[in-house]
Amino acid sequence: MDLTERIRTGRAVVTAQIELLLEGFGESVSHWKHDGTRVTEIDLRISERVFAALGAAFPDDDLCSEEGDPAAGPRSLESRYCWILDPVDGTNNFAIGIPMVAISLALLEDGEPVYGFVYDLGGRRLHHGGPGRGLWVDDQRIEPGIPEERDARIVALHSPIDGRHLPLLKAILRKFKIRAYGSGALHLTHVAYGRIDACLDFTIKVWDIAAAVAFCRESGTAITFFQNNPFPVRRFDVRMRPTPYLAASPAIHQEMLRDMPIPGKK
């Protein structure tokens, strides 16, 4: 089966999880994982359901989830197509009833994001798209845009932030407004769609951003990875190290790289 069939199936599979996501919102039992992050029973059930459906439709594809077994260790990805899932991105928000939450599913071909699906619980809408295939909100095609000129430019960040980044925070506060939505997938989606100006993160993992990277490649959003570029993804490990990065419209991206004291930038 080809890419078009995978895109059709991926959309259907994500959409099929919305009822379960709503059912568990603010109500699901949670516990803490090996890395200190929260997981709920809904994270696990969505992961199982998504991969059961994709595995039945595409048995030769690689399937990778944030909620995989940490004891399994790293594994090589050998198939042409790979799916990377964050079943509930923003689990802390989800567990306490704050609707800045997303289901994030990325389709990769030869390790590169070619299509993404990000269901925004708060907005009750599915963002999807990829390079050469447009950006969509549900059934409406959205023209990729550069953020409008405005006095108050917005940068999305995650916290807590290591003390060594305080000079960077001070520089950002002088020129930008800061938002922290609690979902890396939504941070990058909003940048790709032109709603906010930039996002900067030192704690993100590949499953948080793979779907939205496909959006960025369609919209022309610039991305710099400060350590190792995770793409193409050749190995997957739920214990992988973070992937620090900056994403912004090209002009703001250049300005921030030039003017901001970003640790580790090249």
Record keyword descriptors for this entry.
266 residues, seven-stranded mixed β-sheet, alpha+beta, 16 strands, five-stranded mixed β-sheet
Structural description of this entry:
The protein is an alpha+beta fold and 266 residues long. It has helices at 3-15, 18-24, 41-57, 91-96, 166-175, 184-192, 206-219, 250-259; strands spanning 30-32, 38-40, 62-65, 75-76, 81-89, 102-109, 112-120, 125-130, 134-137, 140-142, 154-157, 177-179, 198-201, 222-225, 235-236, 245-248. The strands form four sheets. Strands 3-5-6-7-8-9-10 form a seven-stranded mixed sheet, with helices on both faces. Strands 12-11-13-16-14 form a five-stranded mixed sheet, sandwiched between helices. α5 (166-175) links the parallel β11 (154-157) and β12 (177-179).
Question: Which helices and strands, and how do they pair?
Answer:
Blueprint: H1 3-15, H2 18-24, E1 30-32, E2 38-40, H3 41-57, E3 62-65, E4 75-76, E5 81-89, H4 91-96, E6 102-109, E7 112-120, E8 125-130, E9 134-137, E10 140-142, E11 154-157, H5 166-175, E12 177-179, H6 184-192, E13 198-201, H7 206-219, E14 222-225, E15 235-236, E16 245-248, H8 250-259
Parallel strand pairs: 3-5, 11-12, 11-13
Antiparallel strand pairs: 1-2, 4-15, 5-6, 6-7, 7-8, 8-9, 9-10, 13-16, 14-16
